[in-house]
Each structure stands twice: as structure tokens, then as C-alpha cells.
Amino acid sequence: MGARDVPDTATVSAVSSFIDFQNEIYLQGMGGTVPELPMTADGFADRARELLDARAYAYVAGSASTERTALANTSAFDRYRIVPRMLCGTSGPGARDTSVEVLGTKLAAPVLTSPVGVLELLHEKGEVVVARAAKELGVGTVVSTASSSTIEEVGEVAGDWWYQLYWPADDELARSFVERAQRAGAKAIVVTVDTPSLGWRPRDLELGHLPFLLGKGIANYLSDPVFRAKLPAPPEESEDALRIAILTWVGLFGNHTLRPADLARLREWTDLPIAVKGVLHPDDARLVVDAGADAVWVSNHGGRQVDNSIAALDALGSVVGAVGDRADVLFDSGVRSGSDVLVALALGAKAVGYGRPWAYALGIGGAVGVRHALRLLLADFDSAMGLSGCADLAGITRELLAVPR
């Protein structure tokens, strides 16, 4: 059976209780049907290593330099232990409330798909596939500027989605991206500030592979009127025209000149809520909230930017302490299980972003794979939450955690 031929045995018609997925699997097992897709984040990574093209796998798996930051992100969760409370009289499966509202967006669970670029490496129109899966499950999706599908293509199928802006070295182009996203139905703008340029990524370097230079992941640029006006000819006209467009992209991606005050210009372009993603230092969090950000997203880009950086989880508490009373605090980098979600929420995150596992699943099983990966995380979280004595998200507090000596 091929990587994209996994049968759809887990279609979700409506979300009643995420933990229902567990009974669904066991009931299918009574008939001799067992899951063909992995049941853990590590399982997805292992299967992807076997099945995906080497360049596609390296692009998703790779992190900065020695990859110590990526390892630190996951191992940071080992520094906390959940202390479940018993006999709390909490509601059982189907009655627990996992819902939350973040930046005016109502979600069935405090989970969003983190922005992952160049999904065409994994599946045709991957962003559209992911947006549909997130909508079906009632969770959020954050769509990257570096998409293989256009803003408008995603907007046609997505539910509650946010647009992630890589602010280019051209404000007119940045404004065009933001205005397109708002017209297409985005509910918030997420400005990623930790990528003014790409990090040092040996896995990609060993293969001499940067997908953007092959014209991949730049659909939003190629479809943008401001960008196209900079070109001598339409990029689809010839190979030479596309090559010129790619080189134009090279000169525009990233922006080392941005400062917190630039958020005021973004506010002039849109009335959508604004989150700033890639913040680790509490002083940076204060600066962007003072400048008008509605949310701070604690993240180190999954370890892809600065080697030996602080683990994102280790930065979460100080950022919450600095701005948590004035802005929503979001989190990603290292989430691999439902208990990880629980820990991040207990440390003050309003919601978490989930990235690599569903990206691997997209490459392995397409739409079925993405739904499966998201359902696993959501069911695991629902289970961990109930077994820890929490009837709703308000019950997930710092008191739920212990720090082993």
C-alpha cells in the first residue's frame, strides 16, 4: 500500500468528544481492523523517514546547526510532572469542555496548526488539505506566507484561520498580503519576527536544497499584484520569467529592519487582531504589547533558527508573567502529546500550535493522515485533561504541575 493510499477509516462527521476516537479505534479492532497510520508523534517521524522523498523529509525534520534547540524543546517538558487530582466530580467523556476563545476566534480545543511552509513538498495543495481538516475538527489553522497555495485558495475552504506574515523588505507588498488575507476571511494576523533570514540548516545544506529557489512555496508572491508589478514579464510566461521572479523573491524575503514601532503601520492596514510570533524574552513581549499587539506567541520556530536557544517552554512562564494580564499568550515548539498541551496551558498559554507531526502525516497519508494526527493529539489531550481532574480549561492551572528535584 502506498503512502497516499491509506484508507479513510476515521472520517469525522461532527466533533462530540475528542476522546471518542479511542473507542472508535477499539471498536474497529473488534472487527480485525487496526490503524494503518502511526499512533504517536515519533511514529509519524519514523514512517516519514521511510516513505518521504529525502529532500521533503529533511526540510520538515531539519533544525538549526547541531539541532540542540529542537531537542531542548521536547526535553523541556520532562522538567514538569502533572499531579492528577482525584475524586473531583468532573464530567466524563462527552461532557468535558475543551473549548476556548483566542483573539476573538472560538475553537473546539486550544489547538492550532502552526504555520508550516512549502507543503507542496508533502502533498499537492497541502495548505488547503490542512485547512479543511482543521475546520472539520473545530480547531484553528495558521497559514504561512510561504505557502504553496494562495491566500485566496485557503480562504475558500478554511473555517477559522489566521494568516502568518513574513514581513518582506517592502511595505507595499506586506500591506498587500495583509489586505488579501483580510478579504479572504482571515480572523487574525500573526507576524513572525524570528525569521528575518533563514537559519543555518545542515540537513537542507547537505542536499543543496532550498525549495523557494525552485519556485516552491512562493505562491502568494507569484499571485500578488504588487509583486508581479516588479517583474518584467509574468512568471508563468517562461522559465526565464520564473527565474527572474524567484530572484526577485530572494531580494524581498525577510526584513532585518523591523522594530516594535512598525506594528503601528500594520494596525493601519488591518483591524484584525495581531499576534507577534517568535518571542522568547519577556522584555520583547512587553515591547510588542506596548506597541499594540493583542497576543504574544512564544516560539523558537521549532528549533529551526538559533542553535542552542532557550527551549520555548522555558520561556513561557516569564512571558506570561510579563504580559499575560494584557494579552493572550500562545505557545509552540516541542508539543508532541496531549499531556504537552496540558503542561503548556498550566504554565499560562491560552492555546498551543502543533506542527511537525501533522506535517509528516500529510506526507504519509494526505487528508486522512492530517485528520488522524490531529485527532490523536486532541483525544490524548481530552483524556489527560479528564484524568487529571479538569472539567474545563479553567481547571488547568499552575497548581496542576510539579517540578521534579
Automatic annotation (TrEMBL):
Active site: 301 (proton acceptor)
Cofactor(s) required, per the database record: FMN
InterPro entries: Aldolase_TIM (IPR013785), Alpha-hydoxy_acid_DH_FMN (IPR012133), FMN-dep_DH (IPR000262), FMN_HAD (IPR037396), FMN_hydac_DH_AS (IPR008259)
Keyword entries, A-Z: Flavoprotein, FMN, Oxidoreductase
Domain of life assignment: Bacteria
Domain FMN hydroxy acid dehydrogenase span(s) in chain numbering: 33-405
Name of a matching Pfam family: FMN_dh
PROSITE patterns in UniProt: FMN_HYDROXY_ACID_DH_1, FMN_HYDROXY_ACID_DH_2
Binding positions (glyoxylate): 59, 166, 201, 301, 304
Binding site for FMN: 115-117, 144, 164, 192, 277, 299, 332-336, 355-356
Annotated GO MF terms: FMN binding; oxidoreductase activity
Protein family membership: Belongs to the FMN-dependent alpha-hydroxy acid dehydrogenase family.
Identification of the protein by name: Oxidoreductase
Protein species of origin: Nocardia jinanensis
